[in-house]
Amino acid sequence: MAGTIVFIHGEFLTPKCWEPWRRYFSERGYRCVAPAWPWHDGDPEALRERIPVETGHLALRDIVEELTALCRTLAERPILIGHSLGGLVVQVLVNRGLAKAGVCISSSPPNGMLALDWDFLKSRALIANPLRGDKPYLITEREFGERFCNTMTREQTRAAYLTYAVHESRNVLRGSLGAAGRVDLRREHAPLLFIAGGRDRFIPEKLDKKNAEAYAPEAGVVDFKEFPGSGHFICGEPRWEEVASYVEGWLAAEPWISANRLGASR
What we know:
It is built from ten helices and six strands; from the N terminus they run E-H-E-H-H-E-H-E-H-H-H-H-E-H-E-H. The chain has 266 residues and is α/β, with parallel strands linked by helices.
């Protein structure tokens, strides 16, 4: 199923986080594109030091519309691979019929879906805090380590923060709880794969599974895979290639005719 892959990054990151994945899939015959969210284009260190003035006003609908436009310029419907809030964007674009397959890795959920998990609820309350207005959320190295890199060493965490992390608009997360983050879970859709990290503190594994199981069984293929030892930085952890290999295999297996899927077991 070689074709075009569009990689969609999530909150507090830029397309730089996809560089190893782009190389991996390019070497296997895929054309790979990794666009930046608005005001997320550039070196992460520079973006941390000089936050673009527009960052705090960025909304989820802006990201969705920009990526919708990108998908419509491509010669074929792409495969979409998104991480975290990028996974929610994948679900929205798949819902619009703009992809031939979607991979949602540690994905933020649609439709205001929640999990009764303290770390999940606490992080969302801090980021979405309405009393902070449009001031960007300034993520520290310590927070990045706690939320993204809890399975990594201190040295690995520091390297990841300095290389990849950026500050973020609070309005992106706020938008995911409203109309911009809504998905019709009964609409017919392209094949979807949900991947969860068993030690993810930002998007707990049970929420990934809840998200996958919310799709109507008759609407299309929905598969789910957990990597037990992985955290939220699953795409950049030392074992990232194991995850990429699983995605490659899922795509090559023509999942739209697979009988081994969540939908078949419910």
